[in-house]
Amino acid sequence: MVFYFKARPEAGDYTIFMGLDKHENEELIRYGFPEDIWFHVDKMSSAHVYLRLNKGQQIDDITEGVLEDCAQLVKANSIQGNKVNNVDVVYTPWYNLKKTASMDVGQVGFHNPKMVRTVRVEKRINEIVNRLNKTKVERKPDLRAEREAVNASERAERKVQLREKEPLAGVTVEISNAYGSKYLAIV
């Protein structure tokens, strides 16, 4: 099961989601989207919380309010982190998550540690957690099918873009082979 939440209304149409357990987290890691931002309590066990940005947005586009929603949700879903004040929550783009065969279920590393950001959560704010929990919806998505559909759509979009850039018939173009040799061809 995946739990879906709505970020604060004034922030826009953002979806926040998290897996039921560490096995569900594996699926979320495997089939994430480039627009997904991953959140976790640093150095403690916690839920893996994701924020799905809109297409074309980057990590710098996250507003303070949405960042606070995600950080509060991940803190509230950490057995240890929920009990203490001043916890650090790390967040990074999904594509920066690194998973190797030697890692435990639910465990991740990072391809580039410099891409990981940290936000300090001083204390749990029940008003935020309660607001998010009121929007909570539980679903059993086919994460693989969703990812494959996005991949197919992106491939189709790239084909259209390539067709628009194709040279006109009868034009001479330079072609390189895998060994670096260059040839002129009339197309």
From TrEMBL:
Residues 1-112 form the NFACT RNA-binding domain. Coiled coil: none annotated. InterPro entries: Jlp2/Ccd25, NFACT_RNA-bd. It holds the Pfam family NFACT-R_1. Belongs to the CCDC25 family. PANTHER family: COILED-COIL DOMAIN-CONTAINING PROTEIN 25 (PTHR13049:SF2), DUF814-RELATED (PTHR13049). This is NFACT RNA-binding domain-containing protein.
